[in-house]
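Hi,

I'm pasting everything inline rather than attaching a file, because the server keeps stripping attachments. The sequence lines come first, and each chain or strand is labelled.
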Amino acid sequence: MLMEPDGTGIWHRLIDDFQAQHPNVQVQLIEGPPATNTREDMYATSFLSGSGSYDIVYGDVIWTPKFAAAGWLLDLTERLSASDRQDFLTADLNAGFYEGRLYRIPAFSDAGTLYYRKDLVGAPPETFDELERLSEAYKTADRWGFLWQGKQYEGLVTVFLEILWGYGGDWINADTREVLLDRPEALQALQFLTRTVGTISPPAVTTYIEEDTRNLFQNGRAVFLRNWPYVWTLMADSPMRTEGRVGVAPVVHASGRTRAATAGGWGFAVSKYTKDPDAAWQFVEFLTRPEQLRKVQSRMGRIPARKSLVPPEFLPILQSARLRPLIPEYAQASDILQRWLSAALTGRAQPEHALQQAARETRLLLGGSGS
Amino acid sequence: MTDRKQMSLLWFVPAAVLLAVIVAYPLLRTLLLSFVRKSLATGFRAEFAGFDNFIRLAFDSRFWQCLRTTAFFTVVSVLAEFLIGLVLALSATSLSKFRSFTRVIFLVPWTLPTAVIAVLWAWIFNDQFGVLNAVLLRIGVLHSPVIWLGQPGPAISAIIVADVWKTAPFVFLILLAGLQNIPRDLYEAIEVDGGGAWQQFRFVTWPHLLPFVFVAVIFRVVQAFAIFDLVWVMTGGGPGGATETVSIYTYQTYMRYLDFGYGGALAMATVVILAITAACLHRLLLAKYEQNL
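And the predicted assembly:
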């Protein structure tokens, strides 16, 4: 199994526990580079060569369709028990399906979350208008209104999608493979995001990733922050949270529309090239049990993808989360969108032009006509 | 057929086999690949696609951006490498002492593996711990550290500096060999006619050096256009795709997007561009030299 560097040592401890119970199964953990993309490429290279280097895939929510479509993963549909099926969060479980079969068992869940300064604004905003108004009202010389992740990377796509869905639009319909980026809702969403740069959001927001924005927010430099649940764990000892100055809320939406946070998360899949599928499944089943997930939760702050284990303040957020399109060409489609969003946000392209271009390139990618 | 001709054909066989295996076969495979749709979406089965991949290429803004980046990188770095290499070669030829010592020293950067050099330069340009920022801050040129590899302009410049450092010695080596080939009496003839250093360079050195210039430039252009490892290690193509070269995009298309048909089209585009460039350089540098013979 290849995964992120085991900084806390928790994964090694879990493997030791597993081996104590199953002395005949050998588990080897390979600590890969911290960059998610690189690990995805490492898995792909190994599978392309048809070798069984990794028996178990610890994968991001967006890898499943690609790996499943390539025929690299074992079908786990029959192996998951009905009670587990009930307990896993809907979006997280659905993310593991490709063409009706289950390939990935969810472990940890993520969803876009809005953090707000309780001491300033009282109740969190519901709509984009309220967010803009409150940001304008409470921003000062050294406090910005709204922080989000604007660098050209996957994080930007997750931010944009929440706004796009909040305006009632969509990116790609996974079933019909229809591209909807040149619809008016998409333009409204991008115009909103472009408008915030330099007004309620710092100009450098177009270079920020999660940690840049968390640091600013935690130091009191912003009224609102769009980020993931991990921030709440990391702020556990910060005076901001202990003094009750920060609150957690679902992401905002346009009035008359419904909200949807972007779903993220990690889970386990089994390689088709594994020599011992039963042992591999035993290990996956072991890791995704509540006891093990709770241990990782307490050590790393990850939120388990089981309804029974989700902290109450995050349950409504995770349950309303929506998946990014489950298409095999996801990585490519995302790269197209990232490039054009970034071009529009940094003023290198007009929002309308950027979306038209992105739509055209995405259609060419998905095999439709370019017009 | 004469014996001699038969023998020469026989001698050609090993070279032909080698070329067929390492050049012709991959080239043909890639050419075929560029006319099919073969990707995840087709379940890795090849479907004939006609010119679809090339049409997509023509409208692919990312490809054009990569091409611009690659062309800019190639022109600037090869020009700089050539000028530095030429100056080094001219001065090394006129050296009377420590000749072999200087040659060895000049060649050191070229003998190091590119990935090692890339890591080395990435640390020099590091915004927090890099020696470049430390020096510039201390002598007062900068007031705050520059994020060299995190901004488009500085990032591509940093890659060019690293590439020039590594490969100027290669140009130096080729040109040095060329300079040593020039008969000394030609210089004496110019001196008798009252020509100075510039006339010597203009009428003797440069015309005789042209074939070597061609070899050095063509090697460098091809390598620079296909630049991968240096960029991959230093910036990974970032920030925001600003240093993404055609070969990095091709790699991503093959390995990350698993889109083999389109990857083939990208590779073919590179082949065609390089073939045209090589033909132009040949006309510009070598044809002229051959006319003068």
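DSSP finds 17 helices and 14 strands in chain A.

If the labels don't parse on your end, tell me and I'll reformat.
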